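tool_call predict_complex ligand=DQA
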Amino acid sequence: KRILVMNGPNLNMLGVREPGIYGKQSLQSIEEMLRAQAEKLSVSITFYQSNHEGELIDRIHASLGEVDGILLNAGAFTHYSYAIRDALGAVKIPAIELHLSNIHARESFRHTSVIAPVTIGQISGFGAYSYEHALNAMYRYLETQDC
Ligand code: DQA
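tool_result ok
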């Protein structure tokens, strides 16, 4: 199985950016943790981060036929990017939305996800472990799709 982990705007600043909310771990160190987990699960994993909506959309399109599942932290695009939502809807690759912080416990503009309706589900609030939970969830999801 091939899993793509996608991170949107400002997530390249993890570790430096509001550590009280997002934690002290860098994106690179989260990716290392996921790489080790993927090895244990015997799945292949790739990573992509962009601060640009169009680049994220291009990467989703390029995943067609190349990727079995997407873990997506779209950052603030979560709350208003109909274009990213439509890209996921177009490729129909199973996706899990994830967030480090609990978006439902924060400012009201973060309570809405326009992406959630085209995903399997949402994981939010477990810090860096949201990524780990999302990878496990995708692994189990793809496993049940196989039988
Ligand atoms: C975030 C939550 C978003 O509201 C915010 O804009 C981010 C990060 C999270 O991982 O908690 O950039 O997606």
